[in-house]
């Protein structure tokens, strides 16, 4: 297992401009995507030779599932289909958000490549848009990934040289669907072998398979999410898609030593020793001692199981980060704390 604490060569994602964040449902995928966006926005912008100064770092956080999870995370009103600034970090870095609507993206696409204009809106009224994205889900994924990749490639209107966004973070579909979602070429192969759709898919794949992209997996230290993470990494590599890091979310503090853990998980806590330690504070009554001993045993067994899952995440050439459990819930203060943890471990 490569950790950021002991690997200087893996302390950053050099050249990566698109960070795709996936994970099993319930692991905190959207939360980690938001924290990563804040962490990236906090980076000091790099200056080119001859530049007097550069504007603050600008990061785009993209949501593709239409759940308005990003708006809820940043305590903002529901986001429309347009890029809006949702956060500013110390130093002036900005996080912008975009919730991609497949219908609107398809209307844009039809207008761009086929110059349909008002005719495309007529197709929407007749339900043709819903029909197309339902019977050909590969087209929907091309639209979602295509809009994201356009933001990655977009240049500044001021000088035409710098990128409009320094980084793009995608809150992507869950682990079980991520390879199919990103491998848009295979999804459209039976639909379009030539033409604008094919060209769009090829352009998307050039970004998604390049060194500009990294796919990060969010997991908890539990058997099912860990196994899904390992399966997802194997699938991505088989499809020649770029694997990023593993983010262990909601990691809990360990309050016992290794010897105490093994003893508590096996034979249990020495109640006499525990009572002696609680005596000076007047908490050595048998019911309290028994309850605390039971909690210690439960804690020890859970920690040992989590250690087994950590070992399972020892994937070659894959960096692992850990984020703490936010016991008071996720708000902007908590997100900033997670962002600092990611930066401190070299993820941004």
UniProtKB/TrEMBL annotation:
<feature type="domain" description="ArsA/GET3 Anion-transporting ATPase-like">
    <location>
        <begin position="18"/>
        <end position="206"/>
    </location>
</feature>
<dbReference type="Pfam" id="PF02374">
    <property type="entry name" value="ArsA_ATPase"/>
</dbReference>
<dbReference type="GO" id="GO:0005524">
    <property type="term" value="F:ATP binding"/>
</dbReference>
<protein>
    <submittedName>
        <fullName>ATPase</fullName>
    </submittedName>
</protein>
<dbReference type="InterPro" id="IPR016300">
    <property type="entry name" value="ATPase_ArsA/GET3"/>
</dbReference>
<dbReference type="InterPro" id="IPR027417">
    <property type="entry name" value="P-loop_NTPase"/>
</dbReference>
<dbReference type="GO" id="GO:0016887">
    <property type="term" value="F:ATP hydrolysis activity"/>
</dbReference>
<dbReference type="InterPro" id="IPR025723">
    <property type="entry name" value="ArsA/GET3_ATPase-like"/>
</dbReference>
